Amino acid sequence: MRVLNTSPRDLGFWIRSARSDSVLSRLRDQHGSEKAFDLLYQLRRDPWGVEMCRRGYQSRKYDALMRTLPERRYRRALDVGCGLGMLTRRLAARADEVLGVDLSRVAVQQAQARSRGYANVRHEQADLLALDPSLNGLFDLVLAADTLYYISPLTDDRLDRAVRRITRLLRPGGICLLANHFFFRFDPDSRTTARIHSAFRRHQPLALLSERRHAFFLAAVLEHRPPAA
């Protein structure tokens, strides 16, 4: 594991993220997931502070994720849970077309405004578990970074549905890049991350190409290898 340098700004990022998670939990109890995310983005325009410091932890993390991707040109890429689209825009240099989807319509509207200068990037409001079947097999890259543990409740059935849905979105030979918070293995967040990554590794059409523990997150690259006809 390579330790990233931290700074007071990085500590501010962690505090902001924890507070937003707490607010989101309360909003979910009152309004359900979709409206809760909309309200959160209205209350806190950048809830998890992904844009609060261009050279902070989150930016360095995204740099690491881009280096993790296999070196190739991607025809179509999908960013699941795109939020404000910061990572979606990073993909614009690696793919001909990039689609970012998020459960929150408010987040998508903000992402669209931020992505106006990117001709090959678009954003849509959508629920991963209810994505249109017409998208099946269209993508040679699907990125799911810091999003699947926000599925509520994250039951084994819903996690399995998410894994199967992402697999169906991929073309044969397509890549899934999975990244989630990972701290000390035995804390609740790390246990959830281990559970998510284990579900992907068990799914037979997906072959694990690499998995690496970085400072505070775990990243895995998987390839869609459907069984021979």
Give the topology:
Blueprint: H1 8-31, H2 33-43, H3 57-68, E1 74-80, H4 86-91, E2 95-102, H5 105-114, E3 121-125, E4 139-145, H6 156-169, E5 170-181, H7 188-202, E6 206-214, E7 217-224
Parallel strand pairs: 1-2, 1-4, 2-3, 4-5
Antiparallel strand pairs: 5-7, 6-7
Helix pairs in contact: 1-2
Give a description of the structure.
The chain has seven helices and seven strands; from the N terminus they run αααβαβαββαβαββ. The chain is α/β, with parallel strands linked by helices. It has a seven-stranded mixed beta sheet with strand order 3-2-1-4-5-7-6, with helices on both faces. α1 packs across α2. The radius of gyration is 17 Å and the shape is globular. The chain starts with 7 loop residues before the first helix and ends in a 5-residue tail after the last strand.
